């Protein structure tokens, strides 16, 4: 009697597979294929939410309960978004704020955001995850720093859990209102005891440190111009105690340099170091205005950074020199930033933006598509302290991947390098997007049960927040 055939959950065949993104220069593809980081015309097997194995078509593939013929399409690890403010899609492209500086934009929107509640937070998170998924993103963090009502992060996790999206909730905070020399109004700040006890509650309720976790929690005071020095210190201590990640905005805007010198008598990075944040536990959003010495110090301390290309361009500041930071050993990931500042949560577009910005800055050899993909996958995974499991597709990784739609029109003629073709010729979106092995996008369509119900409710909540009804 022949042995019983074992079946894996899912087998994807007939694909160009990037197991791990890396490489620059004219022979980048050749090297990646020779090193086994990429497979031209192969298969990948997924089981129990993990990558089991992958191989070329000449190697026999395991039997599977579900087979997806990728039709020659590109397969990559799911993109990882490491900076967002999902609730801001309730004030997307809000006309009174669109042409302001960062500080003008914030002060226009803070009073609107004071209307946030559990319902609108749930809806905005649901919409944000749907938007990210179709753009090939399978894990996102979210920096939720406005808490006019309690339990808003609980509402976020309800949405991500219902969808089956991998999520790192960032318990953000603001303590310094205008009365205390900060930027936000009193209606959106909280006292330190409330913030710290809610942080502990969220960690004990939702943070899953186990391998394959779907939900983790990080701690994330908003920025130096909206929180006290003492909450920065206390948050770092709490993160150490519970072994969770730390996140904040740093060196995002020139105005921040002036503010830090006036209020703290130090530059932003010096302040960041003084409050105990220069550790491998921290990743910072934007990090545009560090000077060369500060960059070296933070890289040596193990801090990592997130570049938000569209947000940088739309606010018309400078942008992080991602390649310089990477060359110092600092992992740099990619974030879409809040919908109100970048107005679009599309990780493919942000990845392309990172590539274009590097080349605009330093010339055509400054960044390849593979390097940009590396930022959006393993760079972003490093931001979240999650490199063993996400951001690559080697055996044992979480089964988070994208089969990219190859548009017969925009991809027409892109024949020599599928990775360069993918990022230079688009826009591209997910044909299949799998999280933990579950297809949340199938044949280009989102498979989210509640989306048709959520969208009109989101429209009503957004109109109310914008004062339109
Ligand atoms: Zn931000």
Protein described:
- This protein is globular.
- The protein is α/β, with parallel strands linked by helices and 469 residues long.
- The strands form three sheets. Strands 1, 2, 3, 4, 5, 14, 15, 16 and 17 form a nine-stranded mixed beta sheet that branches. It has a four-stranded parallel beta sheet with strand order 6-7-8-9. The chain has a four-stranded parallel beta sheet with strand order 10-11-12-13.
- It has 16 helices and 17 strands.
- 37% of the residues lie in helices and 21% in strands.
- The longest helix has 17 residues, at 118-134.
- Zinc ion binds at residues 83, 85, 143, 249, 285, 337-338.
- The parts where pLDDT drops under 50 for at least 5 residues are none
Strand content: 15-25%
* Helix-strand category: alpha/beta
The total strand number stands at 17
Please outline what is shown here.
This protein has helices spanning 28-34, 102-113, 118-134, 152-163, 192-206, 229-242, 254-264, 268-274, 292-301, 309-314, 322-327, 339-342, 347-362, 369-383, 418-424, 451-465, and strands at residues 7-18, 38-47, 50-56, 63-69, 74-77, 79-81, 137-144, 166-173, 215-221, 246-250, 282-286, 304-307, 332-334, 401-404, 430-435, 438-442, 445-446. By secondary structure, the protein is of the alpha/beta class.
Lay out the secondary structure.
Layout: E1 7-18, H1 28-34, E2 38-47, E3 50-56, E4 63-69, E5 74-77, E6 79-81, H2 102-113, H3 118-134, E7 137-144, H4 152-163, E8 166-173, H5 192-206, E9 215-221, H6 229-242, E10 246-250, H7 254-264, H8 268-274, E11 282-286, H9 292-301, E12 304-307, H10 309-314, H11 322-327, E13 332-334, H12 339-342, H13 347-362, H14 369-383, E14 401-404, H15 418-424, E15 430-435, E16 438-442, E17 445-446, H16 451-465
Helix pairs in contact: 3-4, 3-16, 5-6, 13-14
